[in-house]
Structure formats: structure tokens, C-alpha cells
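Deliverable D4.2, example record:
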Amino acid sequence: MPWEDLVLEAAKDYHVLIVILFFLGIYLIIASMAEFQLGPIKSISNENQRKAFLYGIAIAGLSGLILVALLINSMGVEVSGSVTYADVQKLPVKYVDVKIGAHNGMTNAEGIYKIADVPRNERQIMVIIANKSYPDMLDMPMMWPWEDKKIIIMPLDLLVQGQVEDENGDPVEGAYVNISGERDLSNKTDSKGKFDFGNLEVGFVPSKPLILDVRLRVEPRPRSKNVLEIPKEEPYEIYFPVTLPPKDWVDVSGYVRFQENYTDRNPKGIPSAIVTMGGRTAQTKDDGGYVIHKVPIGATEYAIGFADGKRLLTHPMPSPLTDSYENPRHENLTVYKSELNTS
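Output generated by the structure prediction step:
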């Protein structure tokens, strides 16, 4: 801590004494320049006037400076600076919240922020990026009314591990596990189906999402694909178990909705409808939502009817039902007024 900060810290406990010393210095200055007698108090003799004047200047000047410093110290501090990523280009972190205690600010297009009237006892500054908190420490000044704080968002060491199992819960050995994002990484499961990428250096907020996909040796496309969510605080570790969906069936979910015509922008869910795909059926809920389990791969049509067996309609699947990492498959089905009238 600088010497002036030490002096100021000590002066906080002796502010009354500082005030007394200030007025004592003023008295010495006045007394050295005039002859008077006030009761028992007499003016200073001629031979001591110069010495009293110099002592008065020194005492009043020093105590006055300390009083001014105490006044400044009681005021808030304006904290400003920049927020940048720790990359080669030092790219600015745009339009994110910066928080110091109960005081908030926001960075502009250049990553610059400014927060006024921050109490001097605050010691932590927080940058909020994509709902994640990045903390840093503040060294607040004792005497100055402003503080410049440059914040560099450093990358994280993220531990990524997991296990791959089939639909029956058995470990899958030799599955290829890939992580794609700012750079692509590959791993392979061991005899227990486990994979371990170790500590990866990733951005606190990645410029691209971290996507983990799993495929078997002979498959051209991933069997499973998921986005990894980086923890908001330490420890920065992810254990991600993967259950591979089967290749011969897939769950299908979505909503059955009624529209007046093709331009109707407010479709309504149809409750209690019977949805059929590949010989598997399900009934819609009150909001029109449905889930059909284990629809065979290769199903090309769906049918919608009602419990009384009437108003049945059949259409081709909105998209071919092939093997995919998406399980359940999401398909919204639409019934138009004209179809109900003619069925």
C-alpha cells in the first residue's frame, strides 16, 4: 500500500485530532503576524514569530491536505475501462453487463464501460456474459476519484469426460467421439465405453457452441449429437453420458394443429386426436401434443383420426423417417379446415 494510503487510513481514526491541528496551525500563523492579548493568551514574542509562522504553515498545510483527502475519500469512485478477450486481436466484449456490488454498467461497441459513484470498499468486479459471471479483483484508490480497470476474459481449462452406452445400457467400445467448436477434437471409447478429452482450453463464452457427436466406425453420420453447456462457475468439469439411439426405430413427438387455411398464423392444438405412424399410435393431449414411441425407420406416412373413427386423413411424412441422431424426432402435423370438411 502506498505511503499516502497508509497516512489516510490512519487519519480516519484521528479526524478530530486532524481538525484541531489544522486550527492550531491557523492560530500560529495569525499569532505570528499580530500583537494582541486575550486573557492569558498573549501574542508571540518577536524572536519567535518567524518560527511560529513556519510551524503554522507546516501544521495547517499538512492537516488541511489530509482533511481534503478525507473528504475525497468519502466520495464514490468512477470505475471505467475495457473488457477484451484474451486472443491475438484483443477483440472487445460488446454489450455485456459489468457489475460492482449494487452498481451496474454496460460495455459499448468498443468494449468500454463506465460505472459512477462506486463505494471505495468494493473489491470485486463482475462481467456477465451469456448469463455467466466472470469475476475479477479491484484495487480501489484511497485518494483519487477514479480508477481504470482493464479486464481480459481468459480462456478456461475445461475437463470433458463421459461414457457411451447402447439402448440396453451396455458400454460401446471403439465409438468415435468428436467435439467441434473453435477447433475439432477426436477421442475413442475404451472397453468400458469411456472417453476422456482431458483439460481443453476453451473460451469463457465460445464463439461457436461446443458440439459433442458420437458415431460408430461404419457410420457416415453421427448417431448422437449434443451441445455441451460450459459450467457457470468452478469446477469447470463436464461428465457427459451418451446413450446411442437405435438405428431401426425412433421416437416421434410434436403437435397436431388445426389451421383455417395456409395463411392462418394462429394454429390451434387438436386434443384427443389419434396419430398413427408405421403401425404405432398415440393420442394427443389437451394442447395437441403427442409422442409416439419406437416408430420404425422407413415409415413414410402418418394418419390422423378420432376415437369415433371418422375424419381420417393420411399424408406423407413431413421429412423422411431415417436413422438420425435426433431422438425423439420432432414433427408438427397440420390439419386444414378443408380436409375436415371433405373427410
